Amino acid sequence: MKLAISGTYSSGKTLTSYALAHYVDIPRTRARTMRELLPVAVPGKTLEQCTGAELIQLIVRRHVERCVHESHLTKGFVSDGSSLQEWLYGAVRVIVGINPNDSVHLSDVEAVERTPEMAFFDEVMGELGKAIKDHVKQTYDAFVHLPNELELAKDGHRPVNERFRRLADEGIAAAIDELGIPRHVVGGTLPERLNQIVDLFGFAPVMTVDEAIGRAQEEYRAVDMTIESDRAWAVTAAS
């Protein structure tokens, strides 16, 4: 089973995928996250400071890392999201702007100005989407889609507003359905999510749900939450 945990920003994908991997003893893909890629790809910048070209670089880097890590797990895995989310996070910016925080004043029927640069960005996203959808179609057996029901984490890494979150969530779900891949919406608390997933796919737990969550939380606490500009300084100083 090649299973992806999908959803928008702050839907709980990472912790759910960590816990599920422990709970049912399934390998988890370990491609670097955007926050881990930032100080390498665009040193000193946060996501909200990235240009359209830099965002494209980040999307491609993450997609390539996903492909490499997935190719090593031929017998199945659980993935923290999929390349669809990076693509949609880019594509939605055609509506809300390269930095979504700059468009919080717009209504739900308004979009940012379609400049020549934005039109080109839109065209690039469309072409990237073709390649990413092909990969996703050929790779995943099913998706567990986490609803947009949690508060946005205020960790300084997420240049998004609630409209962006909603549009990305709707876009990810629509793309999965377009590809004809089974999509199961699973919400609730983390224990409820894990037990629903086990029931859906007939997984056999190898430990208690509390133990799996505890191990996942330990892993999650080890993720570097430092703001990108601070980590870029540390990387430079150490080299």
Could you characterize what this model shows?
With about 240 residues, the protein is α/β, with parallel strands linked by helices. The chain has helices at about 15-25, 35-40, 50-70, 85-90, 95, 115-140, 160-180, 190-200, 210-220, 230-239, and strands at about 1-5, 75-80, 140-145, 185. Strands 2-1-3-4 form a 4-stranded parallel β-sheet, with helices on both faces.
Features:
alpha/beta, Rossmann fold, 7% strand, globular, disordered C terminus
Produce the secondary structure layout.
Blueprint: E1 2-6, H1 13-24, H2 34-41, H3 52-71, E2 77-80, H4 83-91, H5 93-96, H6 116-139, E3 142-145, H7 162-179, E4 183-185, H8 190-201, H9 209-221, H10 228-238
Parallel strand pairs: 1-2, 1-3, 3-4
Helix pairs in contact: 1-8, 1-9, 2-3, 2-10, 3-4, 3-6, 4-6, 4-7
Domain NadR/Ttd14 AAA: 3-193
Protein name: ATP/GTP-binding protein
Pfam family, one: AAA_28
Shape, principal axes of CA atoms: globular
Task: Briefly note the CATH topology name.
Answer: Rossmann fold
Helix-residue proportion:
40-55%
Strand order of the largest sheet: 2-1-3-4
Q: Please report the total strand number as a whole number.
A: 4
Multimeric state: single chain
**Level-2 CATH architecture:** 3-Layer(aba) Sandwich
- Report mean pLDDT, rounded to a whole number: 89
CATH 4th-level superfamily: P-loop containing nucleotide triphosphate hydrolases
